[in-house]
């Protein structure tokens, strides 16, 4: 079974390599929205309106047509907006023979349908069962072996590390994830925090495949809970009870204690707090940046041509998602380890967080947005509206003798 | 495989809709996906709250008015057909078709776009923009940035310039006249891709 999997991996590797020598800079994989947005700013538009306006005076003033700028922008955002589209899967320029990626309903010719049918057959009858078996064995081994190691009194850190790495490697194989690690010299070290952009729960497996981390998270019930409890027996992960999650001081304290102990592995945290579709990086929550230790940023970029890894939690549950992952062609991604960063003098946690976010966005070729990923579920603040009003008043009303606030 | 057809078949009277609005099947599919994305509770209708969830729109000084434009007076929900009809106003004008006076005004003509903008001002739909209505719009766009006197002053001046029959309100014809030099097609059009 392992041998057949090796063969499969070889085939897919060849495919990946022939398609691209390395993961291309994601700028070429442009997200095409529904509409072409005008890039002119508020000031430019208002100037244009003034030029064709009816006022005879040379001073800029209000024009009835000014409302059109806001109207158009408003309707544009109704049709397509920056934030909402980050929570649905990225669109591809050319089809990759997966029905789920066929967004704009292109006409599919007979020849293409035959290819698609063949692809479907291969994926579901050959790849999927193979992968499910591998995944099951990977997780099973993880649980069993970590429990056994937990019984050994001295802990045997070396053995525990090996077990973790082995199980993750099996899990990675089960997804046929083809990962390229860049700049391994910057790999996170003990006593630090590793931050990365979040696209899917699989991010964890992808990073843990290459090094040992301590995970942070809420303890769940069910199968995941079993796995979590087993893992913590052989190496120190930080699992919180549901009630403890709200207590920020408790969280910060446990993280600081963990970080202070140099024998413990670096903590893995995803500061966005939610899954984003891998075309942008959203606001980083400042909690992990307040602790004051070295931060190791990591950028993860998936190549969506072989299978979209984004987990749209409102559309699919976990099991459905894993099935889709396992029936795609492959998960191809690049991981860049960035040089470690620390908080500088006179920089507060938010500024530090933004600096790290910018570094990750630049490396991964992602758009750096200041919006909060939590906006998936919540509303925007009034301060933004005031900004718009301020901008408009500056560019339009500037009559003499009127002091502007 | 043929998911255009499967999505299109979900929409009733889609042929008529395409005829009326001029959108292509691909556009309709995308708009339908967008409609469904906004309709989080899957009721098949959108309410003002669903629009309010769009951040950029909440940030827009006249966001509420734009949302209001989608709802006919007395209606609390908007279905997919009405949604598309309103958005059709923003299609770029069709340059190819010659003006046929016997046919009804296409929904994306210059006049229709002007009417849409007019309605944003004329909230009580009496066919005139009164001084009070103009003040309301100015207040939304400027809020804290200027004083009440300045707002009144601007409103007075605007009415003075545009009001030709001196009834202290701006009718649609006067509105149209004061904007005759503005490239409406450019300002009030959204380029739909593919």
UniProtKB/TrEMBL annotation, chain A:
Q: Which pathway does this chain act in?
A: Phospholipid metabolism; Lipid metabolism
The processes (GO biological process) annotated in the record are: phospholipid biosynthetic process; triglyceride biosynthetic process
Coiled-coil segments, which residues? none
Q: Where in the cell is it found?
A: Membrane
Q: Any idea where the Phospholipid/glycerol acyltransferase domain is? A: 192-303
A single Gene Ontology CC annotation of this entry is: endoplasmic reticulum
State the UniProt keywords alphabetically: Acyltransferase, Lipid biosynthesis, Lipid metabolism, Membrane, Phospholipid biosynthesis, Phospholipid metabolism, Transferase, Transmembrane, Transmembrane helix
Q: Which InterPro entries match?
A: LPCAT1-like, Plipid/glycerol_acylTrfase
Keyword check for 4Fe-4S: no
Q: Which CDD domains match?
A: LPLAT_LPCAT1-like
Q: Which domain of life is it from?
A: Eukaryota
Q: Which residues cross the membrane?
A: 108-126, 132-159
Q: Which GO terms describe its molecular function?
A: glycerol-3-phosphate O-acyltransferase activity
Task: Please give the family membership noted in the entry.
Answer: Belongs to the 1-acyl-sn-glycerol-3-phosphate acyltransferase family.
Protein name (Swiss-Prot/TrEMBL): Glycerol-3-phosphate acyltransferase 4
From TrEMBL, chain B:
Where does this polypeptide localize?
Cell membrane; Cytoplasm; Nucleus
Would the keyword Disulfide bond turn up in this protein's UniProt record? no
Could you tell me which residue ranges the EF-hand domain spans?
A: 109-144, 150-185
**Which Pfam families does the UniProt entry name for this protein?**
EF-hand_7
> Cross-referenced Gene3D superfamilies, in alphabetical order?
EF-hand (1.10.238.10)
Extent of the signal sequence = none
GO biological process terms, alphabetically, are: protein transport
- Assigned keywords, A-Z: Calcium, Cell membrane, Cytoplasm, Lipoprotein, Membrane, Metal-binding, Myristate, Nucleus, Phosphoprotein, Protein transport, Repeat, Transport
One GO CC term of this entry? Answer: nucleus
**What molecular function terms (GO) are annotated for this protein?**
calcium ion binding
Family note:
Belongs to the calcineurin regulatory subunit family. CHP subfamily.
Name of the protein described by the UniProt record: Calcineurin-like EF-hand protein 2
Organism encoding this protein: Oncorhynchus kisutch (Coho salmon)
Write the lineage as a comma-separated list: Eukaryota, Metazoa, Chordata, Craniata, Vertebrata
């Amino acid at each position: 079974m392992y041998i057949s999997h090796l063969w499969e991996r070889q085939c897919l590797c060849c495919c990946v390599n022939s398609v691209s020598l390395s993961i291309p800079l994601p700028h070429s994989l442009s997200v095409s929205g529904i509409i072409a947005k005008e890039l002119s700013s508020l000031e430019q538009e208002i100037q244009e309106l003034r030029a064709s306006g009816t006022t005879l005076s040379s001073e800029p003033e209000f024009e009835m047509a000014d409302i059109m700028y806001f109207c158009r922008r408003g309707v544009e955002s109704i049709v397509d907006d920056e934030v909402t589209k980050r929570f649905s899967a990225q669109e591809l320029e050319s089809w990759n023979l997966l029905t789920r990626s066929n967004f704009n309903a292109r006409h599919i010719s007979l020849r293409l349908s035959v290819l698609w049918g063949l692809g479907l057959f291969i994926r579901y009858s050959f790849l999927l069962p193979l992968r499910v078996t591998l995944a099951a064995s990977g997780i099973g081994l993880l649980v069993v072996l970590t429990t056994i190691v937990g019984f050994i009194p001295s802990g045997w850190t070396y053995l525990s590390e090996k077990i973790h790495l082995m199980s993750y490697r099996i899990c990675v194989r089960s997804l046929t994830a083809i990962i390229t690690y860049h700049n391994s010299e910057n790999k996170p070290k003990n006593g630090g925090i590793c931050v990365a952009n979040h696209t899917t729960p699989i991010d964890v497996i992808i990073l843990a495949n290459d090094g040992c981390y301590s995970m942070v998270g809420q303890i769940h019930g069910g199968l995941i809970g079993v796995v979590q409890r087993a893992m913590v027996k052989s190496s120190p992960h930080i699992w919180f009870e549901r009630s403890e999650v709200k207590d920020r001081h408790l969280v910060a304290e446990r993280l600081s204690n963990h970080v202070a102990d140099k024998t413990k592995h670096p903590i893995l945290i995803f500061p966005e707090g939610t899954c984003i579709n891998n075309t942008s990086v959203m606001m980083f929550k400042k909690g992990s940046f307040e602790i004051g230790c070295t931060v190791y940023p990591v950028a993860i970029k998936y190549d969506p041509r072989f299978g979209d890894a984004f987990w749209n939690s409102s559309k699919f549950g976990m099991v459905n998602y894993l099935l889709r992952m396992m029936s795609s062609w492959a998960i191809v991604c690049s991981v860049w380890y960035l040089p470690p960063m620390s908080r500088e003098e006179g920089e507060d946690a938010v500024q530090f967080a933004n600096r790290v976010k910018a570094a990750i966005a630049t490396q991964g070729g992602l758009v750096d947005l200041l919006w909060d990923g939590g906006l998936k579920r919540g509303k925007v603040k009034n301060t933004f509206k005031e900004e718009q009003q301020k901008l408009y008043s500056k560019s339009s009303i500037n009559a003499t003798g009127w002091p502007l606030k | 495989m043929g998911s255009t057809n499967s999505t299109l078949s979900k929409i009733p009277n889609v042929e008529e809709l395409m005829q009326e609005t001029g959108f292509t099947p691909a556009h309709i599919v995308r708009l339908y996906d967008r409609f469904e994305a906004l309709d989080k509770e899957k009721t098949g209708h959108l309410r003002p709250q669903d629009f309010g969830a769009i951040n950029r729109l909440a940030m827009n000084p006249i966001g509420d008015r734009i949302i209001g434009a989608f709802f006919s007076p007395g209606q609390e929900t908007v279905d997919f057909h009405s949604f598309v009809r309103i958005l059709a106003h923003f299609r770029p004008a069709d340059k190819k078709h010659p003006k046929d006076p016997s046919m009804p005004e296409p929904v994306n003509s210059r006049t229709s776009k002007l009417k849409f903008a007019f309605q944003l001002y004329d909230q009580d739909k009496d066919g005139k923009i009164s001084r009070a209505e103009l003040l309301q719009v100015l207040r939304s766009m400027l809020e804290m940035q200027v004083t009440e006197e300045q707002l009144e002053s601007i409103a007075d001046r605007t009415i003075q310039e545009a009001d030709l029959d001196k009834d202290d309100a701006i009718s649609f014809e006067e509105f149209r006249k004061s904007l005759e030099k503005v490239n409406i097609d450019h300002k009030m059009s959204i380029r739909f891709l593919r």
